Amino acid sequence: MTFDPSHRLRQTLGVGAEAALSETAVAGAPGGRLRASLLDARTTFDRLVERYAPDAAARDRILSNRFYRTFSGSLAGVLEYMAVERLFEVRAAGRYDRIVLDTPPTREALDFLGAPRRIVEFLDSGIVRLAFRSWFDDSGRPRLTRRLGPLGRRVEAGLDEIVGVDLLRDMVEFFRAFGPLYEGFRARAAEVESLLREPETGFLLVAGPGAERIPETLYFARRLQEHGCHLAGVLVNRLHPPLESAGPWPPLLAFLSRRDGEGLRLLAERLGEIPLGGLPLLGDEPAHLEGIERVAGELETALANLG
After folding, report:
1. What's the count of helices (H) and strands (E) in the chain, helices before strands?
2. In the chain, at which end, N or C, are there fewer CB atoms within 10 A of the end residue's CB?
3. How would you label 29-43 residue by residue, b for 16+ Cβ within 10 Å and e otherwise?
4. Cβ neighbours of residue 143 closer than 8 Å, sequence gap 6 or more
C-alpha cells in the first residue's frame, strides 16, 4: 500500500489507477501472492460515511453535500488519516500475511502518525459545536446579517466576495449532517490509533547515508517512540561500498565510501539498542518488478543482519 503522492512505487509495480479502488494483483510476482493498493482519500471517506450513517437519508445528505464533494479528499489531515484508516480496513479483513505501507518522506510521515488524534481533537473542538447553531434562516440568508437591514446586504456581499456565502452554507450543512456520525468516527479513530501502537505493527525507518542525515534520522526515531510506536529498525539506503584496499580509487568514490562508513558508525553509536542495517547503492533505479526483486533480496539480507 502506498500514499506517497509521487506514485513511483505504483509505476514500478506496473499497476494502474484501478488500484485506488481495490487491491490489485501485481503480475509476475514471484512466489506467493502480491497485491498493491493506492490510497484514494475520497473513496475511503465515502466508505466511512456509509458505515456510520444512521440511515440512507443521512448518508445521501452528506455524500451529496457540495462542501464534502469538493474538499473531502483534500482537507488538511484528511489524506493522512484516511491512509491510517485504509491500513486498518485491510488489516481487519485478515486476507494478508503481511501488509507494507509506503509513506511519503519524513516530515509528511509525521503527519500520518498524528492524524487519528487530530481527527478526535477536531471532532471535540468548539469549531464543530459552533456549526450546530442556526446560522442561516429558511431562505438561506445569514441570520446575523439579516438583522442589520440594508447594511446586512452589504455585509453579505462582502462575505460572498471573500469566502462565498454558498460555501459557508454548504460547510455548516455538512457539519450538521455529520453530527450523527461523530461518535462512530471518534471510536474508529481511537481504534486506528491503537493499531499504530500494537507490537505487531513495526516501523522501519529508511535514511540517507552520511553524517549530515543523522539529526533528521534521530529526530524521526524519537518522534516514533514518543508516539508509542514500535521502531523495528533503521536502514541506511544507498551506501557506497567499503573499499577493500588503499587504491588506487577515484577520489570522489574514496570520499563517498569513507563518508558513508563514518556516518553509519556515528549513527550506530547514537541509536544505541535500535537495530541498524544498510542497503548498498545500486547501479540504477528499480523501474520494474525485476528491479524490485533485486532490492527485496538486498533488503532481506539487511533485515536478517539488523543489529
Report:
1. 14, 5
2. C
3. beeeebbbbbbbbbb
4. 134, 135, 136, 137
Preceding peptide of 280 cis, ω within 30°: no
d(CA 267, CA 276): 8
| Cβ within 8 Å of residue 273, ≥6 positions away | none
What is the model's pLDDT at position 186?
Answer: 80
Write b or e for each residue in 58-95: b if 16 or more Cβ atoms lie within 10 A of its Cβ, otherwise e: bbebbbebebbeebbbeeeebbbbbbbbbbbbbbeeee
**Helix or strand (DSSP H, E) at 185:** helix 182-197
Helices of type H across 77-105: 78-93
pLDDT of residue 205: 92
CATH architecture of 200-307: 3-Layer(aba) Sandwich (3.40)
Longest dimension (CA), the chain: 88
Report how far apart, in Å, the C-alpha atoms of 275 and of each of 86, 100, 232, 240, 297 are: 28, 19, 7, 20, 19
In DSSP terms, 171 is beta-bridged to none
More confident residue, 140 or 276: 276
3-state secondary structure of 124: coil
Q: How many residues does the structure list for the chain?
A: 307
Name the DSSP letter for residue 288: S
Residue 57 exposure: Cα atoms within 13 Å on the Cβ side: 0
**What letter represents residue 241's amino acid?**
P
Residue 278 CB neighbours (<10 A): 22
User: Is the distance from CB of 118 to CB of 81 less than 8 angstroms?
Assistant: yes
pLDDT in tens, 23-52: 888 887 777 788 888 888 888 888 888 988
Cell representation of residue 3:
500514499
Compute CA distances 149 → 143, 154, 160, 168, whole Å: 11, 9, 17, 20
Instruction: Give this prediction's pTM.
Output: 0.75
pLDDT mean over 82-98:
86
Q: 3-state DSSP call for residue 194?
A: helix
**Element (H or E) spanning 13, and its range?**
helix 8-13
